[in-house]
Design brief:
Number of helices of chain A: 9
CATH class of chain B: Mainly Alpha
Strand order of the largest sheet of chain A: 6-7-8-3-9-10
Number of strands of chain B: 4
Distance between the termini of chain B: 14 Å
Helix content of chain A: 25-40%
Distance between the termini of chain A: 50 Å
Oligomer: heterodimer
Helix content of chain B: over 70%
Radius of gyration of chain A: 18 Å
Strand content of chain B: under 5%
Largest sheet of chain A: 6 strands, mixed
Number of domains of chain B: 1
Number of domains of chain A: 1
CATH class of chain A: Alpha Beta
Structural class of chain A: alpha/beta
Number of helices of chain B: 16
CATH architecture of chain A: 3-Layer(aba) Sandwich
Radius of gyration of chain B: 21 Å
Shape of chain A: globular
Order of helices and strands of chain A: EEEHEEHEHHHEHEHEEHH
Number of strands of chain A: 10
Largest interface: A-B, 36 and 27 residues
Shape of chain B: globular
CATH architecture of chain B: Orthogonal Bundle
Structural class of chain B: mainly alpha
Chain lengths: 239, 336
């Protein structure tokens, strides 16, 4: 059974159809990569799954339960965690406190302080535990986004352009951290423009355009497909 | 693993010691001070409590209420109702005033929580006006011109003037320091962690599992109940009540906002320093009449423009000082 089933999901912002009758199953244990040009509806899809945006039509089923009408905080408590494309740190709190929030309010965490420490160890941020989150570099803010999401003890982790804007070596260390998380049994859905990072981790890729899935398959199949080339590079024209 | 999570600082331990000594000195005031001193400190405690509570509401949950006078007045009227109409000892009416105010805040919250931002602020003010007009209609409690507590009722507090003044004074200390202590305890708790997160970023808070609406609702009702206690204290301090004084937007909201803004919103220390500054200004400048209010206004604008986090926010940023630490520090022993 799929961990997450999105069924005929539709969302409009005014006249703009951002999610167009979209259906998608995510199997437990996958790293599903989502590609697509700007404005394709990727982040909106995350907002719909995480519960910050309500769909106009369609349902979202998670672990066999229809969660379409459950609020975002309760979805987190069920095990759906996310990172934000633009990091949203608690600027006035330390790195440890930021992670502690996730550990204290997420999915059944017994000892939040120990959990937060363990997560910081895992993501390599322990040396910065007492720094204020507002003063972190971009890489550390992105790491903090992921650490905080992990502290909620998720079954499904939604990563939104977590590698964007990072140098190659920073990207590689983040990639290692993501693979490490995946190895602990967390299912990951990952939106990314940094294609090489996505290709090296994803077990499956879908490409979105205008709120619809245009290609779905293994990373190598998807990268070879004509639709992807036409979306990103345009059609060949014989003159 | 040899990590220790510490929740105190050297400054906070020193501050705790100083606070204990200060509280002891304050409790002894009936023997070293005049009645005027007791009343001044009593009034100080009223504002310390109101500022700490409003700061919790506005500074942490973003609920900028300009209608807290609803709850001050309601608490005060509960005291008069129970003492005059039901014949209770005025002292015993105080906890009832707190409970009754928290209860009335539940339907009020249902109403005003439908509004956001500026609409919420004005909505709370409208509710306060409704309360004021409502109590002004109750002729049994003196209607619009109010009522004084008869001498025989007042005497139930204590027989002699010395003990009456002292009892009300100690009640003020208990409510002022108590409100501050409860705010501090709340902010150190799990709810406090949620509140601090909400203060910094609501979007992230929700996505990390914090049920924001529930937390805000809880804090609103808690703050209302405590504010009702302050209203009860005010009623006993003045032993006279009028709707205009009990539901005064100037006394119970405008000055309180001034205190919190000057002192530093979103910090526990801010309201304490704000209250001290407000009382200093008042003692030295109140004789200037309307010029005094102009100075207060100019000062508030000046602080907002230059140091938006108030005087304590400025000190905190400069010296990394925290007298009431609510945070967590990781002390690693295996650091090289």
């Amino acid at each position: 059974m799929a961990l997450l089933s999105i069924n005929a999901l539709t969302k409009r912002f005014g006249a703009l159809l951002v999610t167009d009758d979209l259906s998608l199953d995510v199997a437990s244990g996958d790293i599903l990569g989502i590609l697509g040009p700007n404005g394709a509806g990727k982040t909106t899809l995350f907002n719909l799954v995480a519960g910050t945006v309500k769909p106009d039509a369609g349902t979202i089923v998670y672990q066999g339960q229809d969660i379409s009408n459950i609020g975002a905080s309760d979805r987190c408590r069920l095990g759906i965690a996310r990172s934000f494309q633009v990091p949203h740190p608690f600027s006035g709190m330390t790195v440890f406190e930021n992670v502690l929030v996730g550990a204290a309010f997420g999915r059944d965490v017994k000892d939040p302080e120990a959990k937060a420490l363990a997560i910081l160890e895992q993501t390599g941020m322990k040396s910065k535990a007492n720094q204020l989150a507002g003063g972190l570099t971009l890489l550390d803010r992105k790491r903090l986004e992921m650490s905080r999401a992990l502290a909620t003890n998720p079954k499904l982790l939604l990563l939104d352009e977590i590698a964007g804007g990072l140098t190659d070596s920073e990207c590689a260390s983040l990639l290692a951290a993501i693979k490490d998380v995946h190895s602990t049994g967390v299912t990951i859905v990952w939106i990314e423009h940094v294609v090489h990072a996505l290709l090296s981790a994803a077990t499956r890729l879908v490409v979105l355009n205008f709120g619809k899935i245009i290609v779905d398959g293994t990373p190598s199949d998807v990268m070879e497909s004509r639709e992807v080339k036409s979306v990103y590079l345009g059609e060949d024209v014989n003159v | 693993m040899s990590d220790i999570i510490s929740r105190s600082t050297l400054a906070s331990k020193l501050a705790g010691l100083v606070a204990l000594v200060a509280i002891a000195v304050l409790i002894a005031a009936p023997w070293w001070g005049s009645v005027a001193t007791e009343r001044l400190i009593g009034e100080f405690m009223v504002y310390l409590a109101l500022a700490s509570l409003w700061n919790l509401l506005a500074g942490y949950t973003g609920l900028v209420s300009v209608g807290q006078q609803s709850f001050v007045g309601f608490g005060a009227y509960i005291v008069f109702s129970l003492a005059l109409l039901a014949g209770w000892n005025p002292l015993y009416t105080v906890p009832m005033a707190g409970i009754a105010t928290a209860l009335i805040a539940i339907p009020v919250a249902k109403l005003v929580f439908r509004l956001q931002g500026a609409y919420f602020a004005i909505g709370t003010w409208v509710v306060a006006e409704v309360f004021r007009l409502g109590f002004a209609q109750m002729s049994i409690l003196g209607g619009g011109s109010g009522k004084s507590m008869p001498a025989n009722v007042v005497k139930q507090i204590a027989e002699t003037k010395f003990w009456r003044e002292a009892t009300i004074y100690w009640l003020a200390i208990a409510i002022g320091i108590g409100a501050l202590a409860m705010v501090y305890a709340l902010l150190r708790s799990r709810i406090g962690l949620a509140l601090t997160a909400i203060r910094d970023n609501e979007t992230a808070s929700v996505s990390l599992g914090i049920r924001i609406e529930r937390v805000k609702y809880l804090v609103y009702v808690f703050v209302a109940g405590m504010t009702g206690l302050v209203g009860a204290l005010f009623a006993l301090q003045k032993i006279r009540i009028t709707p205009d004084a009990a539901f005064s937007v100037n006394d119970w909201t405008a000055f309180v906002i001034f205190i919190v803004v000057i002192g530093g919103i979103g910090t526990i220390e801010g309201p304490i320093f704000g209250t001290i500054i407000y009382f200093l200004l008042r003692e030295f400048l109140a004789d200037l009449g309307s010029i005094y209010l102009l100075i207060l206004g100019a000062l508030a604008i000046g602080v907002m423009l230059t140091t938006p986090k108030g005087i304590w926010g400025f000190i905190q940023a400069r010296f990394n000082l925290s007298l009431f630490p609510t945070g967590f520090r990781v002390l690693s022993k295996d650091k090289s």
